[in-house]
Amino acid sequence: MKADKRFAGRPLDFWANVRALSESIGYTHRKTGTILVPTLDDMRTAMKKRGQSADHLVSSSGNKPTPVGKLICAYFEYRAEILNGYVRPRLMDAKRAKKEFDNLKRRLKPSCPLPMNKQKGDKRVPAYLTGIVNMLIEANAKNHAYDLNPRRLTTFTREGVPLRTLARRVDGIFPTTNNPIALWEIKEYYFTTTFGSRIADGVYETLLDGMELKELSENAHVKTLHYLIIDAYDTWWEMGRSYLCRIIDALSMGYIDEVLFGYEVIEKLPAIIQDWIQIYESRVPNQ
Q1: Final residue before a domain boundary, out of 75, 90, 105
Q2: Under 8 Å CB-to-CB from 273, ≥6 apart: which residues?
Q3: pLDDT at 278
Q4: Phi-psi bin for 18: left (phi > 0), alpha (psi -120 to 50), beta?
Q5: What are phi and psi of 24, to 5 degrees?
Q6: For FRET with 26, which of 35, 50, 80, 227 sits at 20 to 30 Å CA-CA?
Q7: Residues 105-126: what's their mean pLDDT?
Q8: Residue 104: which domain range?
Q9: DSSP structural state of residue 83
């Protein structure tokens, strides 16, 4: 899914309010486990507890939102609706992911790498989401170059001279690590039993990459598409709903071009790859 155009490009002070309110009020209903939509009273109370003003959010009468408050309310409603109604049913557990992985493997007969996960014992199985991504890219990229396991940092050049080099290696690149059209990161945690710091760090690593790519776009006018691909219902929904909210925030802030949640990879990745090919062929028309 891509960002909602109503909120894309909002200034940083808008997101300062979203983050502050989310932290103070919380992200989910404790009883239902669904994503929370704060009320005006919630926002006013939260700002008071933080020692900050709510005058920019709520009218002096206290019963109507200001224009900024109205937009922030709309964003919270959107974030809850998209996560509760769209993302949740697309997140797969290990059983469902294995079924989709096996179906694609039988149908596509891939020759691309299908790596194993990092678990031990009975949990040592193929990395289902990574395998699904790899198979779909191999099947749809045709004769175009791609790198499913880049072993060096991504570099952007101008006239052959390095312009920017990203701080981290990513999980995949189209077509190469020099001036790529698209890059992606995969976060799959099917057998994780707790939402630990390693998973949280993965979200913040994506944010770092996104900030570097946004700076590159704004200051050097070089655009590369940045994708985050995640799955595991128990990890992300049962234990990590607040981080799903953070991911939607990062998407809306322009640090990620598109997030693919679970089964959404199968629904959308083939068409996305065709977009990459069109961009590549427009840049290199004789290829």
Answers
A1: 90
A2: 136, 137, 140, 141, 174
A3: 95
A4: alpha
A5: -75, -35
A6: 227
A7: 92
A8: 94-283
A9: I
Phi, psi (rounded to 5 degrees) for 191: -110, 15
Which residues have CB under 8 Å from 186's CB, separation 6+? 129, 130, 133, 171, 172, 229, 230
Q: Which long-range contacts (CB under 8 A, 24 or more apart) does 4-13 make?
A: 4/78, 4/82, 4/252, 6/71, 6/74, 6/75, 6/78, 7/71, 7/75, 7/78, 7/252, 8/252, 8/254, 9/254, 10/71, 10/252, 10/253
- Assign 67 to helix, strand or coil: helix
User: Do 81 and 111 belong together in one domain?
Assistant: no
Instruction: List C-alpha distances in Å: 251 to 32, 99, 187, 202, 244.
Output: 25, 29, 15, 15, 11
Task: Find tokens 């408050």 and name the residue.
Answer: 69
As beta bridge partners, residue 200 has: none
245/159 Cα distance (integer angstroms): 40
Residue type, position 93, single letter: D
Residue 248, Cβ neighbours under 10 Å: how many? 25
- Token look-up 């964003």 returns 75
Query: Which of 25, 57, 90 is the last residue in one of the domains?
Result: 90
Smallest CA-to-CA distance from 202 within 165, 232, 173 is with: 232
What's the number of domains the chain is made of? 2
pLDDT in tens, 195-222: 888 889 999 999 999 999 999 999 999 9
On whether both 213 and 263 belong to a single domain, the answer is yes
Q: Look up residue 253 and give its DSSP letter.
A: T
